[in-house]
Each structure stands twice: as C-alpha cells, then as structure tokens.
User: Which sequence fits this backbone?
C-alpha cells in the first residue's frame, strides 16, 4: 500500500506517492496562488493527488491514506485549519472537504510538523524516541516528536519553536511579539542583518558583495565573506551562530531529545555552520559534561520532507 | 495500599505516606545537612521513611512503592542522580541504595518534576492530557506532563524550563549561561532587582521598606509598595510580570498545554500576580484569539507537592 503526501505552501501544492518505507515514487505540483476559498484549494490538491496516483501507475485502491501538510495553525484532531496567513483560511474543514474527492482516511498537520515527521522516519533509527527538527527558512519552523509521535498539544498548535524568546523586547516578529528566535535565526533575519552591516560598513567585502547582488543580501554572502577573511562577514556569521545556538540550547534544555536536526537553505553551509554551532551549543546546555548530550545534525530530506512527513501523518 | 513520597532538599528530607487518592496521612522530616556521601543521605531518608510508616500506624506490607524527589539532574530510568549541586552527589545510585533498606519498587525524579506531577494528580481532571508546572522560587523550576506522563527526555533531565533564554547575553545564571528565564523570573532575581531599585531610588517607598528590613529586599516589598502607589514598586512589579510572562508565552508556544500552573512563594500574591500575568501572556501567544487558549492557574499543593509527586512517580 501507498500514501499520498501533500505539501501545501503559500503559492502552490506538491503531492507525492510515498511507500511504506518513505520513498517517493512519483510527485507533481500545482499552483494555488489566486485561488479563493479553501474549497478551491482543496479541489486543486485533490485533482493533483489523483493525477499523481495515475502518474505512479496506481489506482486509489492502492492508497491507504492521504496526509496534508499546511502552513498555519492546524487542529489535527478535527481536520480543520484554524487559520493560515499564507493561503487565507479560517476554520476551514480541510479533511472533510478532501474526503468528497478521495474517500480515504485524511490527515492534516502543520507543515513544519510534517517536515519533522518526515525527517524522523528517515532516520530509520528505532532507538530514537524523542526528536526535534528546526527549519531555518523565511521563518523558523519546528516540529517535535516525543515517544515516536508528533506532539501537537491540546489544541494542535504546539511546537511553534520559532516563537520562543531570544531577546526580551528585541526585534519585531511576524507573530506580533518582540524578540522571538525567528526574528534572529531565520534566513530573513540573517539577510536583514547582512544588509544593515553592509550599510554600516561600506568598505567591507560584505558591502561590495551586497552591492554586486543589486543591493540585496542573501544568506550566502556573510558565509562567503567570512571565508574570504572579511571581519564584517565573520562577525555576522558568529552572531548568527550564537542566535541559532541559543535557541538550540533552549530546545535541548526543554526536550532533551536524542537528536535535533536543523534544515533550511542556510544548512547548505554544512560544516561551516554545523561545527561552530555544536561548539557553541553543547557546553551551554544544562548539565553539560555530566549528562548524555543531544546530537545535532543537519536534516537530510530537503524539500521532500514535507511530502514524506504528510504521508506519514497516518502512521503517527 | 500506600506510597512513600520523599522530598529531598538542600538541607533536609521530608517524607510522607500518600494514599492512592493523593492525600498525605502522615509526614515527618529530618536534617541532611552535613551528611557526607550519598550513602549517608539515603540512610537518613530510609530511616525517616520507616519512621513515618510507623507514625501512620502502618507496616511496610502496606506500602506499594517509594518515590524520591531530588534536586539536580536525575537519570530516572536507571535510578541514578547524575549530579546535584545542593547535596554534592555525582553518579549516585540512589534507588539501589534505598532498596537495601526498603525492599519495594523505588523511583526517583527531579524535585521540580515531582512537584509538577503532584499538582497534575491534584487537578483530578481526567480530561487534562498536557500540563506544565512552574515554580518561581530560589530558581525557576519546571515540570512537564505530556499524555498524562512526566516527560523527562532521552536522558532524564528534560524540562529545565528555568534555563531557557529570556534575554540574549543578559544577567548571569547559576547554570553558567547568560540571560536565562531563571535569572529574571526567580524570587532571587526579583529580590536582586528590588535591591538595585532601592539603591537607585533612595527616596522611594521601596527603598524605605528595604532599609526597614535591614537593607535586604524580599519578594513581598515590590508588591506592597506598588499597592501603596509607589512608582518604583509599580515598575518592579510590571517588569517582573513581563519577565515571568514572556517565559510563559514561550512555554505555551512550545507545549500548548491545557493548563500551566505557577507556584512558589511569589504566588502568595494571588490575583495581584495572576490577573496581570494572564493579561500579559494570552494575547502574546501564537495564534491568540484564533486557537483555544491555555489556562493559567496558581498551583495548589504548596510544600506538599514534592512529597505527593514523588509518591506518584510509581503511577507515572
């Protein structure tokens, strides 16, 4: 049997056919931008799902369940999206609507939670009970696996790990609060800080790289500038590692998971990020050196994590 | 059948006989200060436990299990205290040692975790699956109940909620890190801030109250001064509520528990603390107004929470 995993984003939906072992045997995508109302979005997702079943040479008889990962706040128990900024939904009964098109068990989860679930299954390590995945992207997303199950709290919206405090009263966050981890550790925040540093240090390599890029920074510039010996780049990278690191210390002190995986485009930096991050985090965790330490790794599934995790919502 | 609950502190141990329903029918205490080595501490606890069994008119045949709440980092699965600053233990096999005196199932847990477990059982509300208790005392302790079970992570030391970030690079914390929630929201921190404010504002009511108290602040002075209209007292209370509140927002965004209970001496302020705290916290949580909200309450068991929770480690 197979699962359909759907990863709904702000501008489109991706769907894949996922095996029991977590491989994607077919996938496709469809734009959803401009669609009005959740019914239209669900219809587009359903048609995409049915198409991808055919693409895989299967019929719906081969499908065990459908899982949908959705940005925003999701009531996973009742199959409802409380609300989502990106795709303008409020109290949308997504699972019931999808069942009109595909009469299978339908599951829904927050997209960051689905990505975490995908990464967890991909570990293939039966000894891991507790696992946290963090995505450093436009925002900072998190998903928490406890006792091998996705943890979503009493209302479905737990695990908003980007929205824990880093700096009391600090940078404004998209959630309306000030000083959230996301406002320092997201790629968006690194880009903001890089543009500020370029402006403040016009003679730096960072500034010339930003200028060459049409006046816009990206998450690669500070790392490249640091590697070339630029002190402004080095400070940006050091600060970013301390911002990401402090949040990871929090997560370890809270959950003490066997493994924390970090993902998102910034993680393409590989060991340039991972090695100093481990050096920052581990000595600062509670009981460091006296209790077994959490392992910090880079997430492996990339963009497929959402599809695989959504498919595996049925297995949670 | 009955349980023995033991609450080990920095200077002494308390033991109680706890019923299946969570009532204490007898309790007693013994000093442990000055005892050298974990063996001597366990011997003192065992003798105390045997005494309190007799005090209750019972014999060991009436006892189902023994639970011990211990400050520090505890490996609950193996019955070992990794280390404890307060009572100088390192890799101490407490459960095996206790079994030499009382041949019953012996359980051990971190003291803040035990207090949380006690408060959870005391709720008596079967609908509550996820619950967090915070103690605002010398430090800030936390305990997390998920799926009706104490959550302790892969190594036993999860739930160190006092050691999450409030203010990046801020006040030094006892754990060696800077800016932890504990360094702002503990009673110790409030006292520090009150003494600083008294020094900086020698004409304030806060300053005169501190002077009358022999130059030492306490956790009551700022609240009393604020009630009397003193602006320095009011600022201290407002700041303290924002410090405690920011950490509670974090905890809600992470766990979305049905209930968060706050305890510790500061909570004797009752509604003076609870009402502004709720007003601060709830609108700042992720998805406020759109998703069901966590309830914030004041813990009810006071000093007995540790004994009752330790006894109920066997029920976890």
Assistant:
């Amino acid at each position: 049997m197979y699962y359909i995993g759907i990863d709904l984003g702000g501008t489109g939906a991706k769907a894949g056919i996922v095996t029991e072992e977590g491989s994607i045997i077919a996938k496709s995508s469809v734009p959803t931008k401009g669609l009005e109302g959740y019914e239209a979005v669900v219809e587009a997702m359903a048609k995409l799902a049915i198409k991808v079943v055919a693409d895989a040479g299967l019929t719906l008889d081969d499908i065990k369940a459908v899982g949908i990962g959705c940005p925003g706040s999701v009531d996973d128990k009742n199959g409802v999206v409380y609300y989502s900024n990106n795709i303008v939904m409020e109290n949308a009964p997504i699972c019931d609507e999808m069942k009109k098109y595909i009469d299978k068990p339908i599951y829904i989860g927050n997209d960051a939670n689905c990505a975490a679930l995908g990464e967890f299954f991909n570990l293939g390590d039966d000894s891991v009970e507790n696992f946290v995945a963090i995505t450093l992207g436009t925002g900072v997303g998190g998903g928490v696996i406890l006792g091998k199950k996705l943890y979503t709290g009493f209302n479905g919206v737990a695990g908003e790990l980007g929205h824990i405090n880093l700096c009391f009263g600090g940078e404004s966050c998209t959630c309306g609060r000030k000083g959230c981890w996301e406002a320092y550790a997201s790629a968006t925040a690194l880009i903001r800080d890089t543009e500020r540093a370029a402006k403040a240090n016009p003679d730096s390599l960072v500034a010339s790289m930003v200028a060459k890029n049409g006046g816009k920074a990206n998450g690669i510039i500070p790392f490249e500038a640091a590697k070339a010996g630029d002190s402004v780049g080095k400070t940006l990278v050091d600060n970013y590692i301390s911002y990401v690191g402090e949040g990871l210390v929090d997560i370890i002190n809270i959950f003490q998971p066997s493994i924390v995986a970090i993902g998102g485009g910034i993680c393409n930096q590989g060991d340039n990020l991972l090695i100093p991050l481990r050096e920052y985090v581990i000595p600062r965790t509670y009981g460091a050196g006296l209790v077994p330490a959490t392992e910090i790794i880079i997430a492996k599934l990339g963009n497929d994590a959402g599809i695989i995790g959504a498919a595996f919502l049925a297995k949670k």
Summary: The CA atoms of residues 42 and 194 of chain B lie 39 Å apart. The mean pLDDT of chain B is 95. Chain B is about 35% helix and 25% strand. Chain B has two domains: 2-119+304-315, 160-257+265-298.
